[in-house]
Design goal:
The structure holds 2 protein chains of 2 kinds.
Chain A (H helix, E strand, L loop, with lengths): L10 H5 L5 H14 L3 H23 L4 H14 L5
Chain B lengths: L5 E4 L2 E4 L5 H13 L6 E3 L1 H6 L8 E7 L3 H13 L2 E3 L5 H9 L4 E5 L6 E7 L4 H7 L3 E5 L2 E5 L2 H12 L2 H13 L6 H12 L3
Parallel strand pairs in B: 2-8, 4-7
Antiparallel strand pairs in B: 1-2, 3-4, 5-6, 6-7, 8-9
Classes of the chains: A mainly alpha, B alpha+beta.
């Protein structure tokens, strides 16, 4: 069923009250499918997370590149990414 | 509809969005990898590239196992291109991982995230080999790359991976691409994926 507010959302999406993560995934995908402007929010969120990770690793493993790699590998071994 | 987020254009899925830093990272890596090898982008990045809102620090690529000579040329070119390998700084350290089909990761110099995780495959890995040989092209602005058929990616996440994140990714893909998903493909792919369990 279409509504005047958003003619593209179906009845299930309109009537559904998000209560879990998966509900939000469903609602977001349905809205995004019909409204590419939502990609802008997604880009901001993805890049904010990337910037945080990048800043954190630079702080944790500062130094020249050789030292950076040595500290990074030590950490990766400690967390089980490297055997 | 003018505001639609994607369309299927001559078998290429065209997504109407701007490139993110994550896309640019992948594009830079693929521009080097493609000189030496074929590839398939799989897993979380497929969902994120098509709108799923979640963080990720790695992008998974399926890559056929290269011989030592080809890998050495690729490795050296990646280093020249500004990437470093988690597993080691030279072929002697890294190629044993490749030979044993253990995943290896690359990031930009002086960065740990994001990273590319190279997953080596051969024809014995039935499901992965199937998706690798049946790629779907996807395009965002001027960046075109290869992913599995969407139906395959959904089933792989639902049947094999099955983590909370994977189920949410599959749900996103089912809804976002509901206009173009093909029930016949789901039926074709399901036994291939179940056979690889």
């Amino acid at each position: 069923m279409k509504t005047a507010l958003n003619p593209t959302l179906n009845q299930k999406s309109i009537s559904m009250k998000p209560i879990s993560d998966i509900d939000y995934v469903e609602l977001y995908a349905e809205k995004m499918k019909h409204d590419k402007s939502i990609f802008k929010q997604q880009k901001e969120l993805i890049e904010a997370q990337l910037n945080s990770s990048s800043d954190l690793s630079k702080k944790m493993f500062s130094g020249n590149f050789k030292l950076f790699k040595s500290k990074a590998r030590e950490y990766l071994r400690a967390v089980g990414v490297l055997k | 509809m003018a505001n639609k987020a994607y369309k299927l254009e001559k078998d290429v899925i065209v997504i109407y969005r701007d490139l993110t830093k994550l896309d640019l990272f992948l594009r830079d890596f693929l521009s080097i990898l493609k000189q030496f090898s074929d590839y398939l982008v799989v897993s979380g990045f497929v969902s994120i590239a098509t709108g799923r809102v979640r963080g990720t620090e790695d992008i998974d690529l399926l890559v056929p196992v290269p011989d030592k000579n080809k890998f050495e040329r690729l490795f050296n070119e990646l280093e020249r291109g500004g990437f470093w390998c988690y597993q080691g700084d030279n072929i002697k350290e890294v190629y044993p991982y490749v030979q044993n089909m253990q995943n290896i990761r690359f990031a930009r110099k002086n960065e740990m995230f994001p990273n590319i995780e190279m997953v080596f495959i051969n024809e014995h890995k039935k499901a992965q080999y199937f998706e690798f040989t049946h790629p779907q092209k996807i395009k965002i602005r001027d960046f075109e790359f290869k992913i599995p058929p969407i139906e395959f990616e959904i089933l792989y996440k639902e049947i094999i991976l099955r983590g909370k994140k994977d189920i949410a990714d599959a749900k996103h893909l089912r809804i976002f691409f509901s206009d173009i998903l093909d029930e016949k493909k789901f039926k074709e792919y399901k036994p291939i994926i179940e056979g690889s369990k």
